[in-house]
């Protein structure tokens, strides 16, 4: 009779089952996190062949997980990156934020930012690589576009004929173009991060500048902003000069920057001053002309001389610029009539005053004067001292009519010869 002996043992595997469950839960959590992040998680063997790939590879490169497993990572790179990988020496060092250029399944390039860590066993042998790739194609294109935009903006700023100065809300200079360097004498490196008021605003205006800046930052109101104004600026050497400028506030986030476009207007202001002075001179000249006209009109004979035997009359049509035009006639005595036609050089009130002096001298000396030539000689000596220091001269024709003998005698001192027309019978 044989006995059957059954030996049995019972092992508590609760902890093992719990560990396996925790492992599965951890792996599932890892998988879900990988899918939610949209980042491509991968593992490669020591030679660079994929042994694991998250589902995100489909979103990034268009390949399924099974199309990646077993492939070498260089098979998915662009030809340029493949060539560069051949010259790299193998390394077991971690890498961070390495930019890779992949080819999408449909052929278009994809840029990723890759980070990888080597995994070693206890003996230090490389077991595999574990890493993550993040798609940065859109971000890189945006960065490139931003860089290109900044280049264009810089080119525009530097090629501007205006001095362009940009200031932040603290009053510090953040940009300073080439024209600003030429205008103010400070280089860009010297100007950046300096207080704008210290470099280009005269001392007497700096307090108003600070108050205006703070008022705008607290109220949003700036009376001088967004309009063309004239002001005074200062150069590096301390000299002041007039400028025309416009200031535009731009809000970036919660802060403001202020863009100033500045033109030097020294030449224009000088031209404007010349125009104003010319207008003043014109007004003075017009006033003098009116005075000269009144002088000329008041000293001309008021009426003709009429007798039973002759008539003397005169008429003067003055030019637009009146001056020393002069004619006169009067009785020297009961037997002699004097007639004068004269012109003082120049125009306006100066010649008119010399004409007054000439007329007064003739009238005063008339009774003591002799023949026309003697009269002109005496008159020349009398007026020479006054006229010698002036830029004026007088031409004069002097005629005497002897009433008793009916004879004419005359003398001419540089005046255009008069004409005599016999009266028709």
What is the element layout, followed by pairings?
Elements lengths: L13 H24 L2 E5 L5 E4 L2 H6 L3 H4 L10 H8 L8 E9 L5 E12 L5 E10 L1 H23 L3 E6 L4 E4 L1 H7 L3 H4 L4 H5 L2 H17 L8 E7 L5 E13 L2 E10 L1 H34 L5 E2 L4 E2 L10 E11 L2 E12 L1 H17 L6 H17 L5 E9 L4 E7 L12
Antiparallel strand pairs: 1-2, 1-5, 3-4, 4-5, 6-7, 6-10, 8-9, 9-10, 11-12, 13-14, 14-15, 15-16
Helix pairs in contact: 10-11, 11-12
Describe this structure in words.
The protein has 12 helices and 16 strands. The chain is an alpha+beta fold. The chain folds into 3 domains: 21-141, PAS domain (Beta-Lactamase), CATH 3.30.450; 161-264, Beta-Lactamase (2-Layer Sandwich); 287-413, Phosphatase 2c, domain 1 (4-Layer Sandwich). The strands form 4 sheets. A 5-stranded antiparallel β-sheet has the order 2-1-5-4-3. It has a 5-stranded antiparallel β-sheet with strand order 7-6-10-9-8. A 4-stranded antiparallel β-sheet has the order 13-14-15-16. The protein is rod-shaped.
């Amino acid at each position: 009779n044989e006995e059957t002996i059954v030996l049995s043992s019972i092992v508590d595997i609760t902890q093992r089952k719990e560990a396996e469950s925790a492992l599965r839960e951890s792996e599932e959590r890892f998988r879900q996190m990988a899918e939610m992040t949209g980042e491509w998680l991968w593992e490669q063997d020591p030679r660079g062949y994929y042994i694991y790939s998250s589902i995100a590879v489909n979103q990034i490169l268009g390949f399924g997980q099974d199309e990646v497993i077993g492939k070498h990572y260089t098979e998915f790179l662009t030809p340029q990156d493949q060539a560069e990988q051949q010259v790299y020496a193998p390394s077991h060092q971690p890498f961070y934020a390495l930019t890779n250029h992949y080819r999408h399944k449909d052929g278009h390039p994809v840029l990723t930012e890759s980070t990888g860590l080597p995994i070693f066993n206890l003996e230090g042998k490389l077991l595999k690589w574990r890493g993550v790739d993040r798609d940065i194609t859109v971000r890189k294109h945006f960065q490139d576009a931003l860089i290109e935009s900044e280049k264009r903006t810089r080119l525009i700023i530097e090629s501007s004929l205006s001095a362009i100065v940009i200031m932040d809300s603290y009053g510090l200079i953040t940009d300073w173009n080439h024209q600003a360097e030429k205008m103010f004498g400070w280089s860009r490196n010297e100007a950046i991060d300096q207080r704008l008021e210290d470099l280009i605003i005269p001392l007497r205006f700096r307090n108003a500048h600070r108050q205006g800046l703070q008022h705008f930052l607290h109220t949003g109101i700036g009376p001088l902003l967004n309009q063309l104004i004239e002001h005074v600026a200062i150069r590096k050497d301390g000299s002041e000069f007039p400028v025309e400028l416009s200031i535009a506030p731009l809000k970036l986030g919660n802060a403001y920057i202020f863009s100033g476009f500045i033109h030097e207007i020294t030449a224009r202001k000088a031209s404007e001053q010349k125009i104003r002075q010319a207008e003043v001179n014109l007004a003075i000249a017009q006033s003098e002309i009116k005075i000269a006209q009144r002088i000329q009109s008041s000293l001309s004979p008021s009426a003709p001389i009429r007798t039973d035997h002759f008539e003397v009359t005169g008429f003067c049509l003055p030019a637009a610029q009146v001056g020393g035009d002069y004619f006169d006639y009067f009785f020297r005595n009961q037997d002699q009539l004097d007639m004068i036609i004269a012109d003082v050089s120049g125009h306006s009130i100066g010649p008119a005053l010399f004409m007054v002096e000439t007329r007064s001298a003739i009238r005063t000396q008339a009774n003591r004067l002799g023949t026309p030539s003697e009269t002109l000689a005496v008159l020349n000596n009398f007026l020479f001292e006054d006229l010698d220091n002036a830029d004026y001269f007088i031409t004069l024709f002097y005629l005497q009519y002897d009433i008793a003998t009916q004879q004419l005698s005359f003398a001419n001192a540089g005046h255009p010869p008069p004409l005599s027309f016999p009266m028709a019978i």
